[in-house]
């Protein structure tokens, strides 16, 4: 059991907001604990929207498995945000609460060791994609970073290895994408269809060797599986991508995940970023990428 006594500075917070900040639980996990009466305020079961007062006693009867804290590679950190590296094979976050080891839980644990500041994920990358992720330290900064990404004031570029020699060597892919949520898969078309959204990716072939192209991709839009599906649609699926690519070819290379890395994040904003304007012109790079070294010798 854990006991939290509400401070004056915490007065007025909702119960759900307070505990998710303290424990870094996914909302679904918190709601289940609330329904099963494992959260009480002053000995009583309260609703998620209950407003806390100074001196209130919040008790959690949730038994959590204590796993070893996994290290986080932090490329940049200041009072507002962090830029971290996500390995392939780790979720950014899990809203179901079933998976405890996520990048959100790892970053939250790292921050708690430094003083208990909450972590707020700004965007996601796929489970089997590696690379850079942004985390904010407050909800306000998270919302600001999200707006800057939507307004294309923060740009993200990826490195990928695709099958074949993509021609021309640079260009822009513009398609329509629609998602089948049940299959967690997207479909690409040239013309708009019901429920589709425009997907735009700029690409540049950086190298070609032995039937494989090393490609840099810049997202103009941010659709689910955008790079993977568009590259497959134009005949150059990502090496290792069984969902959109060629499974037999992937196995011949002994690759079981798509070779895709979120390699760079650039701050293309100015004063419109308000409290983050000091980062104008900043660029974060992931550095060496293992699959690039493997197939292109550190190109």
Characterise this structure:
The chain is of the alpha+beta class. The protein contains seven helices and 14 strands. It folds into three domains: 2-60, Structural Genomics Hypothetical 15.5 Kd Protein In mrcA-pckA Intergenic Region, Chain A; 66-150, Pseudouridine synthase; 154-263 and 292-296, Pseudouridine synthase, CATH 3.30.2350.10. The protein has helices at residues 15-23, 27-35, 103-114, 139-150, 226-233, 247-252, 290-296; strands spanning 2-5, 39-41, 57-60, 73-77, 81-86, 120-121, 130-136, 154-163, 170-180, 185-189, 197-209, 212-219, 260-267, 283-285. The strands form two sheets. Strands 4, 5, 6, 7, 8, 9, 10, 11, 12, 13 and 14 form an eleven-stranded mixed beta sheet that branches. Strand 4 (73-77) and strand 5 form a beta hairpin. The radius of gyration is 22 Å and the shape is elongated.
